[in-house]
Predict the structure.
Amino acid sequence: MTTATHEPPPGRARPLRPSLPGDLQLVLWLGAVPMLLACLLPWVLLRPNRLAQGEYLHLPSTQAVLGALLALAVPLAGRLLPAGVPVLAPAALSLGLWWLGDRTAAAMQGQSEIARASASSGVWLWLLGAAVAVYGAGMVAGRLARWARPLPWLWLPVAAALLLSGHFSDWSVTRELSVQQARFGQELGQHVRLVLSGLGLALLIGAPLAVWASGRERVAGAVLGAANAIQTVPSLALLGLLIAPLSALSNAVPGLRELGVSGIGTAPALTALTLYALLPVLRNGVVALRGVSPGVLDAARGMGMSGAQRFWRVQLPLALPVWLSGVRQAAVLLVGVASVAQLIGAGGLGYFIFSGLQSGAGDLILLGAVPAALLAVLLDQGLRALEQALGNALGRA
């Protein structure tokens, strides 16, 4: 019996340092290049008010040099010292967030209350590059010891501490939030209500349809074809198409009008959101239920289980993780579609996005777009964690 060794072949020298594969090093360089460019670009746009033209401000030279060195350090660590990448990448992201608050606060010194200090191209490019570097650091950490795997998330407590300490209080988006705090809470609540209501209705309609169609080929083809056809219609067009029939329906049935059903407002928005969420719920439900191994169902039948018992105790638990993946896709999709619902008077975070577009105020656009993006990420990560937990506990179809 021979013992395996890691000695290099005769005549070849042992590598002096560990190094990452080429694809991982490429990811780190793809993060470093935007950060290097960000050091040359303006970081803050200072304006006397949110609509006026302003002055672009760059980083001080010492901070620009420090940023360039840190940007280069991440990919160089990937080549020379991979264990340093999961520390340097979140440090770069944290530093970008710190500079955002620090530079906007410095710009607002001596300015009036209506002045605005917005994040300029340098901030966004730095944060983009740092996010790519953190993504690469996550892959690097997966190759290291177990204790190193949480390191790429070190930026998260730093960001939370900066936010809670009021470090971003002079950023123009935070200023807009403080001015419109009451309206923001109202529209955020409406956005969440629209998404959850549309998703709930889609589950009520789509889940029984998926169960019915999973064992019938023709029914599955018809149902999935109809849901697919609905989703090919652009969201804005679908909202417009619903105005006329819902208006006619509310005029014909006064009881519906008293319940709030009309051609504009929440009713057409909720109808469109439900229709959009049907396809991922239906498709993943049919695929998940059909994916359960026939051998497992035969074994349950051999144990004397009835059809209902096989479905509730065997088929549904095994199909649930894959089915939940469709629910996750539908939830993320609805967060985006609900932003358009403001155009027919349904409210939501789209109120700030379209108000900003109409008035040319980029800060108002961000006040709606940033929370909508965060809401989509939170829903995706929460449902993904639930999907993985169910997959580990119940097994996958």
